[in-house]
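REVIEWER CHECKLIST
Item 1: Sequence provided? yes
Item 2: Single chain? yes
Item 3: Sequence as submitted:
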Amino acid sequence: MHKGRLEWYCSRVDPLTMRDLDKGTVPNYSRAHQLLKIQEKGQMPVQQRGHRNNLKKRALDQLRLVKSKPQRSPEQPPRQLWMDPCSDPDMILKPYSLVRPVMVKTPRPVVLSPNCIAPRLIRNLLDLPTSRLDFHVCPAEKLAEGDPSTTHSRPVSRTGPQDWRESGRIRMIREAMEKNKHCLLELGVQSVRDLIKSEIYPIVIHVEVTEKNIRGLRSLLGKVGQRDSEVLKVCRSAEQGLHTLPCSWARVEPHAWSHAEELPKVVRSCIFQEQTRPIWIEEGDD
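Item 4: Structure as written out by the authors:
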């Protein structure tokens, strides 16, 4: 509690420099959980909607929490964040999650979103000058097979062929990283959790698709004849899925490119930029 209220006093952290920015208060976990349930029912109080505190405006939008810095005085024990929603059975609504930054020196693998444009976007990315010196593509069919050269020599396991495929995928990705190349994955964002559990932290990049730029992406779509509304629905669903990932991800804004031929260059620049930045991982997901 802060000053007798169900709030935390905290600082907003710059996700790139990891420095403290503006300070303020946010509802503590218990109060935020209650407010989130009210918001889900469409009954958010007017005074909460119009609050001037910038931190509070973000408090009910999956706020990421960073552990506080160690106390300078050894006599003061470090404060712990109480992340239990007070024995409420509704555990689906989680207003806050605890994260930590991870810096990776070796080239991280790349996952592109939405899936409907990823395969052809990867191909166009490889066609750029010198791209094959920086990138290595891991086709979907090879990742699905895993490492067939080793499966014949392995004894039958209770875990079955699924674990063989997973270990084969990880091996292929690590080999690309050892060659100092970014591995372009055709796995989709649903496999990001498995990579993180193996301590592989991918660069996830989402290309935002809107009504204005969807015509320019027609050449990247795998299926022909899809209506704009259908494609937009798929792309928006993909973006919603990104918000459930246990890691940070990057977005290519619509104004960053004007035609499909320019998009691979923008994505390539984004990959190199993200490589120099920390990735934020939820505690307990690696």
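Item 5: Key structural point noted by reviewer: The longest strand covers residues 20-27.
Item 6: Recommendation: ____
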